[in-house]
Amino acid sequence: MDQKLATAVTGERDLVLHSWCVQAEWDAPTIVGGRGAHFFDAAGRGYLDMSSLAECSNLGHQHPAVVRAIREQAERLCFVTNAWGAQPRAELARLLLERSGFAGGRVYFTLAGADANEHAVKFARQASGLPDGFVVTRERSYHGASYAAMAWSGDARSSGRGAAFGSLKVPPPYAYRCPFGTTDAEQCGARAADAIAQALDAHAGQCAAVLIEPAAGTNGIVAPDNYWPALREITRARNVYLIADEVMSAFGRCGEWFAWQRYGESARPDLMTLAKGLTGAHLPLGAVVLSADVAQRLEHEMLYTGLTYCGHPLACAAGVAAIRAYADEHLLTRSRRLGAQMFDALRAMQARVPGVGDVRGGHGLFAVVELVRDRGTREPLAPWPQTPPGLRQLVARARDAGVSFATRGNLIILAPPLVIEENDLADALALLERLLSQLESS
């Protein structure tokens, strides 16, 4: 390693504030490159990415078509505000409306997921005529780290801020530990949906939106199949906008362009928010996709919002290339196929490893493994959201073996790039089982 690079590696810890961590405890290698499902550090070590780096890199790292599109757009036009038109912005909006089936709708571009969620709520409040309308969200949810998004999130890291931003929280459809006291997944889904109905009815005429993650997320909860369709019926019957937070679940992660599509046309939300896989994380970009009804209500009103980099041409060019790559490489079909293989392997692992309490997901390359101290009582290894020391050791040992796993609390969250090779996926799962067996014996 040359001296300049060595200085950068040792220097970042003292120069940068890092997200969601105690700064004095941050200690990570510097990543200098990537290819496919692998990324590489400054010391030459390679890592198989089993989380798509926070469910972002759905296309893998340094996807050639996206990198090429960024380079070509940079040579033409890097930036113009959205007071002016930009061809990549228009093309990406057209593709998103086409893939989502939001005919006659509009797209508002943001910088990331948190501000996409804030703008979706802003649009729902304006379109409903409720500028201070309540927003119903779930406990054990995450919608971003801005003040409003943290308030709407049911996240242990950001609790206690809801009142200032009109947040109403309801229990989640957490079937493995159902807050409604049932062990039946379908009943848990129905009761969780009914909790939203009760919240809306208790504040009739005062709720602007229900903001929910349809599927994947760091909360580790995969809702029963009856939950989202019931939620759509409940919100539609009460004329309350339903916002699908698809920041993590879109672009093939759950086997569809957007996770809600698995439930059919009748389950379509009124608005949805996007980020992460929108560009395959090659550049920062978020979006709000609005239905024709919502867009029409805003058509002749002043839109009191703005972002300097709204619809940045360089980021939008990356988004166009990413969407074409998902389609041209048939990655949604691949995600469904490999996701089923991964889920079957995890279920088989569960039968062999007593500490695996639950395995959920499986509709694409996304699954959650929940670890327990006792499978019979479902006693967790550590209280939520604490991460047990043994799981931290498992992650460190996996990294030493060249595999990067993501965890939160007692959960292992598996979301590899959609381009992962089948043998790499099988090897990573075999490593995970060996490490879990070691964790059991210790």
Name the features.
442 residues; alpha/beta; Aspartate Aminotransferase, domain 1; Aspartate Aminotransferase, domain 2; 2 domains; seven-stranded mixed beta sheet; five-stranded antiparallel beta sheet; 38% helix; globular
Question: Overview of this structure, please?
Answer:
The chain has 442 residues and is α/β, with parallel strands linked by helices. It folds into two domains: 3-62 and 330-441, Alpha-Beta Complex (Aspartate Aminotransferase, domain 1); 66-328, Aspartate Aminotransferase, domain 2, CATH 3.40.640.10. The protein is 38% helix and 16% strand. The chain has 13 helices and 16 strands. It has helices at 3-11, 52-55, 64-76, 87-100, 113-128, 147-152, 185-202, 227-237, 292-298, 313-328, 331-352, 389-400, 422-441, and strands at residues 31-35, 38-41, 46-49, 106-110, 134-138, 167-170, 207-212, 241-245, 271-274, 286-290, 356-361, 367-374, 379-380, 403-404, 406-408, 411-414. A seven-stranded mixed sheet has the order 4-10-9-8-7-5-6, with helices on both faces. Strands 11, 12, 13, 15 and 16 form a five-stranded antiparallel sheet that branches. The chain has a four-stranded mixed sheet with strand order 1-2-3-14. Helix 7 (185-202) runs parallel beside helix 8 (227-237). It is globular.
